[in-house]
TrEMBL record:
Protein name per UniProt: Thioredoxin family protein
GO MF, any single term: antioxidant activity
PANTHER family: OS07G0260300 PROTEIN, THIOREDOXIN-DEPENDENT PEROXIREDOXIN
Domain Thioredoxin: 9-160
Pfam families in alphabetical order: AhpC-TSA (PF00578)
Recorded superkingdom: Bacteria
Gene3D superfamilies given in the database record: Glutaredoxin
Source organism (scientific name): Methyloradius palustris
Length: 187
């Protein structure tokens, strides 16, 4: 399982729309989750050790961000045929187990991951109120294990976006497992 790092923030890039089925059996579009002060679009999955290591803290931080006017959605884009742990039924189980307060949606065709340029899990896209990209960085300095006295990079960046409409100029790229793309014969 190779780890990859996405590129750093392309400030001002506009969030592409989507229409994806969530674990709550509702379809979600970007307008449905747009926050008053900003929107966090994150690509996660169930099986990735990088995601597993931050999942509980991520759920907690997202709750705090909601109070600041930042809404969040999690998108799962992996090929579920090759990675059955990431199946829709398992997504529902994870969302329930960790009490996700945000939509967890399936990008079955992987078109949304491609539109966003997502390359790993976790991959974070933090937008301001105008849906302009302001953060494309890491959750914190943890990798597969919790780093002592972690810095909360994602939380602090999105807090800054909520307060000023702009993300930090200095960002450290996220790191995680590559998105598991479907083979051309499945597409």
């Amino acid at each position: 399982m190779a780890s990859v790092q996405p590129p750093v923030c392309d400030f001002g890039w506009k969030a592409p729309d989507f229409n994806l089925l969530g674990t709550d059996d509702q379809y979600w579009q970007l307008a449905d989750i747009q926050g008053e002060k900003g929107t966090l679009v994150m690509f996660i999955c169930n099986h990735c050790p990088y995601v597993k290591s931050i999942r509980q803290r991520l759920v907690s931080d997202v709750r705090e961000l909601k109070a600041l006017g930042i809404n969040t959605i999690a998108i799962m884009s992996n090929d579920v045929a090759d990675y059955p742990e990431d199946s829709f039924d398992n997504m529902k189980a994870i969302a329930a187990e960790f009490d996700f307060s945000f939509p967890y949606v399936l990008d079955e065709t992987q078109a949304v991951a491609k539109a966003y340029g997502a390359i790993c899990t976790p991959d974070f896209f933090g937008f301001n109120a105008k849906l302009e990209l302001q953060y494309r960085g890491r959750f914190d300095e943890s990798r597969k294990e919790l780093a002592p006295e972690s810095t909360r990079d994602l939380f602090k960046a999105m807090q800054q976006v909520a307060e000023t409409g702009q993300g930090p100029r200095e960002q450290i790229a996220s790191m995680g497992c590559s998105i598991k793309w479907r083979s051309e014969s499945q597409a």
